[in-house]
Amino acid sequence: MSRQFTPKVVTANRLREGDVVYLTADDQWSPLHHQAELIEDEAHAQLRLLHASSQKLLIVGPYLADAKAGPSGPEPVHFREAFRTRGPSNYDHGKQADLRA
Questions:
Q1: What are the pLDDT digits (tens) for 46-67?
Q2: Do residues 87 and 94 make contact, with C-beta atoms less than 8 angstroms apart?
Q3: What is the top-level taxon of the source organism (predicted)?
Q4: What is the value of pTM for the model shown?
């Protein structure tokens, strides 16, 4: 018996800066998790991952991360992914500073 597919988002790191990014439905890379495309079909998820993997000049390390639907868009399910949405942990810069402004 096959298990039920858990919704996913495609995430990676931007090659130039190393920032965490998420693939949107219109094939853009956003630093905001809630703008990611929430993928609810396993075959479609694999196609989106293949598409992301072909963008070697833009991103590195693409993978599928579990997510769930939220009121403003996809939300992370696991602690690791929630942590990645907050940006670098070494000091206050990047997303942490931008989202507060």
A1: 999 999 999 999 999 999 999 9
A2: yes
A3: Bacteria
A4: 0.85
